Amino acid sequence: MIVPGNLFILSAPSGAGKSSLIKALLKPESLASARPMQVSVSHTTRDPRPGENNGEHYHFVSVEAFKAQIANNAFYEYAEVFGNYYGTSEAAIDAQLAQGIDVFLDIDWQGAQQVRMKKPSVTTIFISPPSKEELENRLRGRGQDSEEVIASRMEQAQAECSHYKEFDYIIVNDDFDQALLDLTTIVNNQRLKCRQQSIAQQALFSKLLENDHKKA
Ligand code: 5GP
């Protein structure tokens, strides 16, 4: 019997290092690699950017196709961001989970709220920057953006941070290796729960409980 996969949401203000953490977690040498893991590929109505591939970075669809999927209740969650739609397909996620794949959703707090309502078993993780100064340093990046752009990014980041209490776990990404270990611990913790282990270790427990010992 296949052990169903776990669903995880990772949310963070941009600049917290979420993408690097997910990338490291999914590497073959990661301490969480004992079970298959995938990042969910969202649907969007925006145009692909150079270097983006359909089905890899996003599923690029028309507004009509996206609206038809909304009408069919096909999304775990969706949002309109800067005039484009973005959504997480319920059927695709459920199929991955049924195959025993742990799935990671890289979505914001609004998406997290919607998924939590539909799937209360989801594990939600907030990744925080270590300080406001460090966040600003990271958002300033290569120093090519105007003060106005940076101020607007800081405002967005603060809005994301204001929802930290809604999450099951909080990881402060100060030292990257420690943050990765924290993330790995959360993922492995879910896998070790009795609900999952009783399926994964079914053969072991039926042997342990076999009544075949001889009485003296
Ligand atoms: P971009 O167009 O730069 O790839 O993404 C724009 C924004 O849309 C980002 O803040 C990203 O987190 C968000 N986003 C991407 N996919 C989804 C999704 O499936 N659901 C929601 N709610 N937001 C998404």
Automatic annotation (TrEMBL):
<dbReference type="InterPro" id="IPR017665">
    <property type="entry name" value="Guanylate_kinase"/>
</dbReference>
<protein>
    <recommendedName>
        <fullName>Guanylate kinase</fullName>
        <ecNumber>2.7.4.8</ecNumber>
    </recommendedName>
</protein>
<keyword id="KW-0808">Transferase</keyword>
<dbReference type="Pfam" id="PF00625">
    <property type="entry name" value="Guanylate_kin"/>
</dbReference>
<dbReference type="InterPro" id="IPR008145">
    <property type="entry name" value="GK/Ca_channel_bsu"/>
</dbReference>
<dbReference type="InterPro" id="IPR020590">
    <property type="entry name" value="Guanylate_kinase_CS"/>
</dbReference>
<feature type="binding site">
    <location>
        <begin position="12"/>
        <end position="19"/>
    </location>
    <ligand>
        <name>ATP</name>
    </ligand>
</feature>
<keyword id="KW-0418">Kinase</keyword>
<dbReference type="InterPro" id="IPR008144">
    <property type="entry name" value="Guanylate_kin-like_dom"/>
</dbReference>
<keyword id="KW-0547">Nucleotide-binding</keyword>
<comment type="function">
    <text>Essential for recycling GMP and indirectly, cGMP.</text>
</comment>
<keyword id="KW-0067">ATP-binding</keyword>
<keyword id="KW-0963">Cytoplasm</keyword>
<dbReference type="InterPro" id="IPR027417">
    <property type="entry name" value="P-loop_NTPase"/>
</dbReference>
<feature type="domain" description="Guanylate kinase-like">
    <location>
        <begin position="5"/>
        <end position="188"/>
    </location>
</feature>
<comment type="similarity">
    <text>Belongs to the guanylate kinase family.</text>
</comment>
<dbReference type="GO" id="GO:0004385">
    <property type="term" value="F:GMP kinase activity"/>
</dbReference>
